[in-house]
Amino acid sequence: MTSLDIVFILVAVVTGGAAVMTVTSRNLVHAALFLGVTLAGIGATFLLLAADFVAMVQVVVYLGAITVLFLFGLMLTRAPIGRETLDSRNRPMAMVVSAALFGILVVLIVRAFGSNQFPATEPISSSVADLGMAIFSTWVFPFEVVSMMLLAALVGAVLLARRQSGDSGTETRVTPIREALDDSTEELDRAPAELGSGGER
Amino acid sequence: MESTLVSWWSGFWPGLFTALLTFLVFLLTTALLIWAERRIVGLMQDRLGPNRVGPLGVLQTLVDGAKMFFKEDFTPGMVERVLFTVAPMLAVVVSLMTVAVIPVGGEVTMFGQTFTLVTADLAVGVLWLLAMGSLHVYAVFLAGWSSQSPYPLMGAVRATAQMISYEIAQGLAVAAVILYTGSLRVSDIVAFQATDSGLFPGAPNWLFLPLFPAFAVFVVGMVAETQRPPFDLAEAEEELVAGFHTEYSGMRFGMFMLSEFMGVVIQSAIVVTLFFGGPNGPVFGPGWLQGLLPVVWFLAKTSVFIVFFVLLRGAEPRMRYDKLMNLGWKIMIPVALVWVVVQAAILEVDRQWDGWTDGRMPALVGLGIVLLALAVTPMLRRDPTERTEAARSVARDLGPRRLPEKDDPAVQADTTPDTGRGDAPHTPPGPEHDHEEVGV
Q1: pTM of the model
Q2: Residue A29 near chain B (CB below 8 Å)
Q3: If you placed Cys at B328, which of A68, B32, B165, B322 could pair as Cys (CB 3.0 to 4.6 Å)?
Q4: Who among B411, B421, B437 is closest to A170 (CB)?
């Protein structure tokens, strides 16, 4: 067992544990933070495979953007981000589905790559230029397809989140924030004499 | 096995020396910055600033640090203890880790071997800078959320939104650097800038000229990223008490303060490394001076940007949050994005075209942009006495401010009890007032 194996086991335990905590945690923010730890662990695994570029991109994109956006979604909506504990009645169903998915993926990956034995040499660090050439020549079609899919997801998210057509900002008079603002504007309207007569500094 | 051990041992002292020197340089600069900022801002505000401890008060930071350590470190009862404790540590650790890839000097010969003064020259060093920047967001978010209190949470939302917005613009600016130099390794970028630009003999190839738009975006981004005035809305005192670190006290608050100032030093160091040649500069004299001078050049260039931060703080009022976001998303990101495309085109044309520019085209284009900016800026300057449209509309809504007179019907009406919006008597004299349009 080399030192690399020991580090890999440590990283794998942390990553796997955080992944389990992500789905079992009863606090949404904790779950999101555990997800962050999981993604960071995957980044560390990339580092162990000498893929330092992919590892850094993993940190920048998944940890720096996606998990932060999750946290943002929690904070900006009325998600329960306090101390509440949450649970779902779909827990058994979710366990069955994820166990099935796990089983299928393990079987698939072992059947597809299980016979490939990589020679145990020193890890070779590929240059970023090689990586770029590979993505934009050999793999350009899958790359573009994935890009289009992400773009479609983005457009779909905007479509879901925006107001109904004809539903302009002037008509949404029901939210409490809106009412409060109306009142304060009214205050301004009513009290100019007070403003001008030394009430302000 | 033995040979690797020997090579590890022979690399130990240079490594230790480099790491210690790097951290010493950054921590000392941070301490000096805190003092210098208070002195310079004091000067700008016609007061003295700290002047009691040490010559010109230079030891004030040390005393303040000691005070921070001995103050009671109070943990409010409602906080999430673990995250509350982790957040300030994360802030400082991430800041310290950032400096690892920044070369603070050139080659030195010491302990019988020659080595470069950079702690870790990663092959993806530039990405490391961005990655650490995105981890810093977590420190702020964790501090705000784990406080379980409204103002810190709002401060954290503002701060993280601001940081990730400007990270995009900054990342695109860095992408321009990567595109131009063709490397993610920080030492390669510094070495690239040490070559001759060919504009005129002896002109260094510092990237701020050929990449001027990227440089401008990066500078704006770095002020926003460190949440320094005029972009310090995350701790706008009159709105949010102190922002995300409201509930912190003692040294844990001190760690946040330290990480903010370290952010200033680090961002200045990054901009110097990426756009001003890092430790490049004329090197002469005996051996020890040749080792020392790059460090001096690096510190001198970094100090220029640190003073820029301080002057900006003293001169500019705080921006409004929506304006900050508009600037980030509608100006900075498009400018950076368009510039990356334009620059790629310039580089390709320069490569294909074998004309008289002879590889100087990016620099010439950059020079043109700088001259254009210098020519246009005075034209854009507004007359400070002229009212902006926003100010005019506010004035229209408020109406003329007059002293109350006894027989003024408006004032008399004002004293009657309000019955509601419809018959508010003091109708502003503007053509129409459009409060209905005010959205949230």
Answers
A1: 0.77
A2: yes
A3: B165
A4: B437
